[in-house]
Every structure is written in structure tokens, then in C-alpha cells.
Design brief:
By secondary structure, the chain is an alpha/beta fold. It is built from 10 helices and 13 strands. The chain has a domain of 196 residues: NAD(P)-binding Rossmann-like Domain (Rossmann fold, 3-Layer(aba) Sandwich). Belongs to the NAD(P)-dependent epimerase/dehydratase family.
């Protein structure tokens, strides 16, 4: 079996990636700092190393023990707001952590790194949907750190021959998500409406996003491992949805009519974001399988079961 180390493998996206890899007969180890995930979520028999990617010695030990052929690097600081408020911590995790991965991948003979990047690398664009060829300008430290990490991976390919696949995610949502990150608006809205609490929308609600279901993202990571080259791809639905439209869909699913309240627009937020996924369809043979409503329904049932479980404890 091919051996894959998944950093951040106990988190929201990472746990779904691990699910898909194990179902497809990969030998998987997880490296995670337990900041959002829990070790009880790991598969039986799956090796789990617990530390931060900034800790090169711990990462080196994990790779020495497991000897991965591939790395899927998902561990990251994922909040735009936190990156604005603490630019150093953002850079330490997203840039230094990735540099550590590259350095140790070279030492341990790793063949390929699949890297979780973000739509935030593009910043504001007059071209929608945004193609991967668009040279954007990040509007937040988070976007800048992801873009810098991408550049290090491209240099590593030229200098050390390590293949890479960079996956620029749009707004990922689905079961197990916390309120952090750009897709966290779904989990926040759904959690509050299930609990019959009012939702806050930052800005006027007309800002648009491109929502992609987490299981589709996980399958894109599998396709990236199987891809025979290096490359950069958008992982998105290529469907533009306003926050007000999203709110309406979630209200319909939750059967709730509480009106939202509106807050000030947040620093670093992009007004409109939708990514073109055509190159992913053509080159990775990947296509998103879930419509927004289908994904929201699955997410709703997950959060509803979580609520019921907490009531019955």
C-alpha cells in the first residue's frame, strides 16, 4: 500500500481526506496538533503523531518512523481574521510549517506534496470565475502566507525534484466543521438556527462565495495523489452564492424564520469570490458531486444528530 502522511488529519477537511484514503486502500498516518480535531476521531490502527508543523524535530521523528511516500499538507492557520490580528503566528504555521514539510520531504525521499491552498491567494478580481492563471494580490496575511507557501513548493520542484499539487479551495463546508475559516459561515448559521438563535451577517449580505462540500474536496485530494504531474488547481463548485441566499437555504432546511442581524464588514474579507474549476475537471478528472442544497442537507443532519447526542448525554 502507498503510504501517505496527512498533516491536520484530525481536523475538519483532514478527517474527510483520511476517510477517502483509507477507503481506497492507502496506508495513512496523521500529524496533528489537536487544535480542532480529537484523537478519538482517528481510525483504529492509524498512527497519530501529535505536534505542530512548526516543530521540525517532531515532524522529522514522525517521518522517520512512518516513512511516507506522499504528504497531504492540510495543517494550517485558517482564519483571515486571526491572520489580520496576529500576522506572526499566521506566518509561523503557514509558511515555516510548509518549509519544514519541504525540507523533511527532501531528506526522507517523499515523492509528492499535495498542498491545501485557498481562494484567498487571488484577492479581489474583476475576472469571475477566477482561473488558476490569474495573478492576484492577496488582501490578508492569510492569503499572503498561502501564496508564499505555494511559491516554496514550486521552487522545491525545481531544486529538489519534489512533485507538488496545489489545490486552491473555495469555501469548504460540511460535517465536523467548526466556526473557523472562510467556509465556517455555514456551520455558524446552521448551529445557531438549529438552536433557535439569531444569525449575524457581516456586511450587507450581498457578498458572494463559492461553496464546495467537504467530501468533494477529499476526493480531489485523492485525484491529486494519482495525478502524474505537478500542477495548480481550483477546487470549487464554480457557483456564486450570496450570503443572503445561503441564509435563505439554511433557514428553509432548518425550518426557521428568525431574521438575521447585520454587523460591520470585516477587514480582509473579499467581496465576491467564485473560482473556475474547468482545469480540475479536465486534468484531474474530478467533478464536484454535491449541489449546495444537497451538501447543506447532509450537514444539517450531522449537526442535528450532534445536538440530539448532547441532549441525551
Amino acid at each position: 500500500m502507498k503510504k501517505v502522511l496527512v498533516t491536520g488529519g484530525l481536523g475538519f477537511i483532514g478527517s474527510s481526506v483520511v476517510d477517502v484514503l483509507i477507503r481506497n486502500n492507502y496506508d495513512v498516518a496523521i500529524y496533528d496538533d489537536l487544535s480542532t480535531g480529537s484523537i478519538i476521531d482517528a481510525y483504529p490502527g492509524c498512527i497519530v503523531f501529535t505536534n505542530r508543523v512548526e516543530d521540525a524535530n517532531s515532524l522529522d521523528l514522525a517521518m522517520s518512523i512512518f516513512k511516507p511516500e506522499f504528504i497531504i499538507h492540510l495543517a494550517a492557520q485558517i482564519s483571515v481574521e486571526k491572520s489580520v490580528n496576529n500576522i506572526v503566528d499566521d506566518a509561523l504555521t503557514n509558511i515555516i510549517g510548509t518549509v519544514n514539510i519541504i525540507k523533511l520531504a527532501r531528506i526522507h525521499g517523499v515523492k509528492k506534496i499535495v498542498f491545501a491552498s485557498s481562494a484567498a491567494v487571488y484577492g479581489k478580481s474583476d475576472i469571475l470565475p477566477i482561473p488558476v492563471s490569474y495573478e492576484g494580490q492577496p488582501l490578508s496575511p492569510y492569503g499572503a502566507s498561502k501564496k508564499t507557501a505555494e511559491n516554496y513548493l514550486k521552487v522545491a520542484k525545481e531544486l529538489y525534484g519534489i512533485d507538488y499539487v496545489i489545490l486552491r479551495y473555495s469555501n469548504v463546508y460540511g460535517p465536523r466543521q467548526t466556526s473557523n475559516g472562510e467556509g465556517g459561515v455555514v456551520s455558524i448559521f446552521m448551529d445557531r438556527l438549529i438552536r433557535n438563535k439569531q444569525v449575524t451577517i457581516y456586511g450587507d449580505g450581498f457578498q458572494t462565495r463559492d461553496f464546495i462540500y467537504v467530501e468533494d474536496v477529499a476526493k480531489a485530494n485523492l485525484k491529486a495523489l494519482q495525478y502524474g504531474k505537478s500542477g495548480v488547481f481550483n477546487i470549487s463548485s464554480t457557483t456564486s452564492t450570496s450570503i443572503l441566499e445561503l441564509m435563505g437555504l439554511i433557514q428553509e432546511i432548518c425550518m426557521d424564520t428568525l431574521p438575521p442581524v447585520f454587523g460591520h464588514e470585516r477587514n480582509g474579507d473579499i467581496k465576491n469570490s467564485v473560482l473556475c474549476n474547468q482545469s480540475s475537471i479536465d486534468s484531474l478528472s474530478w467533478t464536484p458531486e454535491h449541489s449546495l442544497k444537497q451538501g447543506l442537507l447532509k450537514t444539517y443532519h450531522f449537526y442535528l444528530s450532534e445536538k440530539m447526542a448532547s441532549v441525551n448525554v
